[in-house]
Each structure stands twice: as C-alpha cells, then as structure tokens.
Amino acid sequence: MTEEEYIKGVCKKIKQIRVNKKMTQIELASKIGIDDSSLRRIESGNTNPTLKTIFRIALAFEIDVNEIFSFTIVTEILNKNQDLSEDK
C-alpha cells in the first residue's frame, strides 16, 4: 500500500463514520473548528489531515482515534502480503 492509498483510506473512513453518525459536513466542521471546505477536501482525500485534526474528529464522533485508522484496505493489503509470502 502506498502513502496515498493509506491517506485516502483514512479520509474515506472519516466520511463513513460521519454519515453513520448522521452528521453533516457543516456540523462536523463546526465541532472541530475548521471550514466545511477543509473537511470536504479531507473527506475526498485531496488533503492529508493533521493528527490534531484527526484527534478532534475522533472527539467529535465520541470514538477512539484508532477507529479512524482501522479500515478494510489495511486488512486486504495484509492478506495479500501474507499470500505473497506463502508463495515463496
């Protein structure tokens, strides 16, 4: 997995959690103290959110920050790497 794929995975997870929590981008942006345009860039994967921003997002969602970093692509990549090592 590349850095870009990982960042996009984190950003996608943020959007997924926000939608599941039935929050608008404006509501979340207001809670964490950023412009909604900045949040749109984060959720679309067009910018790399800072750890400070991710921490604030986790607080706004009332979740552990680790939840933001756990997403399917990581599991898929780990499984692929394991399959490759078993082929040797």
Index terms:
6 helices; about 0% strand; about 90 residues; about 75% helix; mainly alpha
Describe the structure.
It is globular, with a radius of gyration of 15 Å. The chain has a single domain (3-86), classed as lambda repressor-like DNA-binding domains (434 Repressor (Amino-terminal Domain)), CATH 1.10.260. α2 (25-32) crosses α3 (36-43). The chain is mostly helical and 88 residues long. The chain has six helices and no strands. The chain has helices at 3-20, 25-32, 36-43, 51-61, 65-69, 72-86. The relative contact order is 0.17.
> If you consult CATH, what is the topology?
434 Repressor (Amino-terminal Domain)
Percent helix among the residues? over 70%
The biggest beta sheet is recorded as:
none
How much beta, percentage-wise? under 5%
Q: Tell how many strands the DSSP assignment holds.
A: 0
Count, helices: 6
Query: Any idea what the CATH superfamily is called?
Result: lambda repressor-like DNA-binding domains
> Which parts are unreliable, with pLDDT below 50 for 5 consecutive residues or more?
none
H/E topology pattern: HHHHHH
> Residue-averaged pLDDT, rounded?
86
Radius of gyration based on Cα positions: 15 Å
- For this structure, what is the CATH class? Mainly Alpha
Integer tally of domains? 1
Shape: globular
Q: What is the terminal separation in angstroms? A: 20 Å
